[in-house]
Amino acid sequence: MSNSPQSDPSCLFCKISDGRIPSQRIYADDFCTAFLDINPVNHGHVLIVPRHHHKDITELPSEVASQVAKVLPILAKAVVRATGADGFNVIINNGAVAGQTIFHGHWHIIPRFHDDSVNWPWPHSDYSGDQIHQIAFAIERELRSIQDLS
Ligand code: AMP
Ligand code: ZN
After folding, report:
1. How close is the Cα of 46 to the center of ligand 1, in Å?
2. What is the domain partition of the chain in residue ranges?
3. Nearest ligand to the C-alpha of residue 45?
4. Residue 147: predicted pLDDT
5. How confident is the model over 42-58, as pLDDT tens digits?
6. pLDDT tens-place string over residues 64-83
7. Sequence-ordered list of residues with C-beta below 8 angstroms from that of 45, at least 6 positions apart, any chain
8. How many other CB atoms are found less than 10 A from the CB of residue 89?
9. Is the CB of 23 under 6 A from ligand 1?
10. What is the per-residue pLDDT for 120?
11. Is residue 83 within 6 Å of ligand 1 at its C-beta?
């Protein structure tokens, strides 16, 4: 359960959600809005932003997360059709170390083109010995302590 205020007066995305700062909005419902990123990775780069303030997606109420999960594939389909993209990335940056710069959690839909210059993917590592079982066990234990997912 989140203790976030509904709106943070100093938050850019709260101001955009409230309409106090303009944006190129493409979608809105009771739970979220979607608008064009002002500095797009590729043209048609969309941000999906929950209406209420939550610093990252770990604080989102499940009803908001459910609504975003419902509209995201539809928005992505519209982005792909409108831009003629060959594919798209859905990215969420959580925390400064992960590249988050606006601390009001949000989703990026980034249209991708065969000839674009986006530097992706990032490098992968591997596990040795029992590490993969250890981390799976630790995550499952935390899941059980957080909530019932059923
Ligand atoms: P992140 O780095 O994941 O926190 O993403 C923040 C995104 O917000 C960046 O891609 C910015 O280009 C975008 N952004 C910043 N200011 C605005 C704005 N006024 N309108 C639309 N997008 C913005
Ligand atoms: Zn906010």
Report:
1. 10
2. 12-149
3. 1
4. 77
5. 999 999 999 999 999 99
6. 999 999 999 999 999 999 99
7. 36, 37, 108, 109, 110, 111
8. 16
9. yes
10. 83
11. no
Q: Classify domain 12-149 at the CATH topology level.
A: HIT family, subunit A (3.30.428)
Positions in the chain short of pLDDT 50: 1-2
Cα dihedral: 47, 104, 125, 145 (round 10) = -130
Closest alpha carbon to 11 in 53, 60, 61: 53
- The contacts of residue 11 (CB under 8 Å, 6+ apart) are 53, 102, 103, 104
> How many residues are listed for the chain in this entry?
150
Tokens describing residue 6 = 């509904």
Distances from the Cα of 120 to the Cαs of 23, 30, 110, 117, 138, in angstroms?
27, 34, 12, 9, 29
Q: Where are the alpha helices (DSSP H) in 38-129?
A: 62-83
To the question of pTM greater than 0.85 for the whole model, the response is yes
Determine the pLDDT at residue 149: 67
